[in-house]
Amino acid sequence: MSSTELAVTVPEEKPKVATGGTSGVKSFLSGGFGGMCLVAAGHPLDLLKVRMQTSTQYKSTMDCLRKTLAESGIRGMYRGMAAPLVGATPVFAICFWGYDQGQKIMRYAYNLSPTDKLSTNQILFAGGFSAIPTTAVMAPMERIKCTLQVGAANSAGVAYKGPADAAMGIIRTGGLRSLFKGTCATLLRDVPGSVAYFGAYEFIKKSLTSQSAGQGSISPLAIVTAGGLAGMANWAVAIPPDVLKSRLQTAPEGRYSGVRQVFVEMMRAEGPGALFRGIGPAMLRAFPANAACFLGVELSLQFMNSLW
Fold first, then answer.
1. Quick one: pLDDT band at residue 21, thresholds 50, 70, 90?
2. Which of 70, 74, 97, 218 could pair with 28 in a Cys bridge, judged by C-beta atoms 3.0 to 4.6 Å apart?
């Protein structure tokens, strides 16, 4: 038999494994730790943001700061912190887990291997997807936090003592459903916000390091820079729906039928500028809080990767 007649067997190419480079468990744990870092670093400015969004008595961020300090001192700057601190672990754990799952969906859909880099559009999809599972936990936590931050009182006129007391008061007044008031507004805020958040973080970090999340070592300076700017990108997009959410969640029971009514009445009474109320403290908070968040996420991922 001549060589031209020999049958040449070519091994069949194995399909690529459609999974991401980071396990869901690691994404979950690192996200929770990052969320705790974010709350610890950014809560005082978040309090100023919510107060400015829900009241017209403050002329500026500094005016809000002075009046808050005069009213309740430094301790008052951390009012309502217990709710987001307790909720930060599951909320951000689910957020970063959702982001990881969004990447896995893209890898599966496009038959990409763990070593293949995702395109910008695929990263943006994963970021937006992360907001969907997060909202189920985020909405009631935001409802309690905002209620405490504006110093709301119960039916007897006594200010709530803490997150548990506020939660029970909200349920007594409007039922369990009231605890989830603002869920649609939260989703309206977090889907585009998360697209900007993760998209900006990955773009800036890759520009600085040519690395994707969770892959190899990265300098703390690069993490802080990318994380802080990502937080600012998030709020540049999310502040208008966040104003609507804060107004809806802190209003008396039955005041609004939904986020649409909040928007219509706000435009009629205060104009478009009201949608950006609180953007000063939001932006001031965004850089340090989110720098701390992503620093916690990346360093905890590196620690876990060194263990298993």
1. low
2. 97
